[in-house]
Specification:
220 residues; mainly alpha; 3-stranded antiparallel sheet; 3 strands; 5% strand; binds zinc ion
């Protein structure tokens, strides 16, 4: 047998394996002709494999290049899972432990933030303040510390999902649900409302990323 690889493996399997084994690392460019040479296959199946891997989000576009999806994207997903659960827990604990004054501050913040519906930048800052207030109202310093870590990582994301179409109003409506649940001392509702809010923000961010990829496809 002259071929070093089992005959049943196609271009897709070979590239996937190369990514798996870190032959290609996150951020590395994948070039059709180079892959064809390396694996001794023709360019058409390589092109099809690349398209498939891109559809599966294992590859992403960087200008004209296809690159192995960066850790940032993975980290972002991981971050949203952790964030959703930790923020949900904060809301749940806030429903139990927030003082009447703290609940009042949340309600006042929300009323003020409604004036920022046309100012995504300011609303984004207000959003961070609002969430921080819920963290503090949980009265659990270990949770506050973990959430600080999560929010620091969130700051590494270049854009804010709040600026997306329709998000300012939705964000405020979701915040209203959270505050109402905390006011009612309904821990389960507070947890669910906050976790759903983070989930909605994540969906928005994924859509923003998808339309960015789409825009590149149109351009090239
Ligand atoms: Zn929010």
């Amino acid at each position: 047998m002259t071929d070093h690889r089992p005959p049943q493996k196609d271009a897709y399997d070979l590239i996937l394996e190369a990514i798996d084994s870190h032959t290609y690392r996150p951020g590395d460019r994948l070039v059709e002709s180079e892959l064809a040479d390396r694996f001794g296959v023709s360019r058409t199946p390589v092109r099809e494999a690349l398209q498939r891997l891109e559809t599966q989000s294992l590859l992403t576009r960087d200008g004209r290049s296809l690159i192995v999806a960066s850790l940032d994207h993975t980290q972002m997903s991981e971050l949203y899972v952790v964030r959703g659960e930790l923020e949900g827990l904060a809301a749940k604990l806030a429903a139990h432990h927030a003082t009447p004054e703290e609940v009042r501050v949340l309600r006042d913040m929300l009323d003020q933030d409604r004036t920022l519906v046309d100012n995504p930048e300011a609303l984004s800052r207000a959003n961070r303040r609002f969430h921080k207030q819920i963290h503090l109202a949980s009265h659990n310093r270990f949770l506050v510390r973990q959430l600080d870590l999560v929010h620091r990582s969130m700051a590494l994301l270049a854009t804010t999902s709040i600026a997306a179409e329709g998000r300012p109003k939705d964000t405020l409506d979701e915040h209203d649900k959270i505050v109402t649940a905390i006011e009612n001392k309904d821990a389960d509702a507070a947890y669910t409302a906050l976790r759903d809010h983070i989930s909605a923000a994540y969906v928005t961010r994924l859509k923003l990323d998808a339309s960015a990829v789409e825009a590149l496809d149109v351009r090239f």
